[in-house]
Amino acid sequence: MTTTMNDDPTTIEALSQALRFPRTVFGAMADEGLEARCEDADWHEVPQELRRVLAHHRASVEYMLLILKRAARFVRRHSLRLAGPPWLDITCVDEVAAGAIYVVPLDMSPKRSLIWDERFLSRLADQDLLKGFFMVSFCGRSAD
Known about the structure:
Layout: H1 9-20, H2 23-26, E1 37-38, H3 46-57, H4 61-77, E2 87-93, E3 97-106, H5 110-126, E4 134-140
Parallel strand pairs: 1-2, 3-4
Antiparallel strand pairs: 2-3
Helix pairs in contact: 1-3, 1-4
């Protein structure tokens, strides 16, 4: 996978919308009308923050979309339901560091979700898709 910078505003917008409205990528595994939270920015600021992350790593928005779509496919394939809104945390520290994590709550215990999270990350590693600056992670939100 190439990691060239792509500043196509429509693609950045598509990524931002997919992160904000999980049903667009997770389908029926996410409740209708579910809206993700963004930890340190308003949603209208997210495209610019994503551009900063991509520029810092000389990466493509297509890579971030691919990881998000892989997470959604993993969730659907294993019939895992989202348990509330995901949250996006973007960190940009001047020229020092930049990254983003998208945490997806699943309808299971935190302990069980660790197993699914590890399985997903292992799949990405097996396909040489772990780049470290954009992660999708699962957490549990109910008791077993």
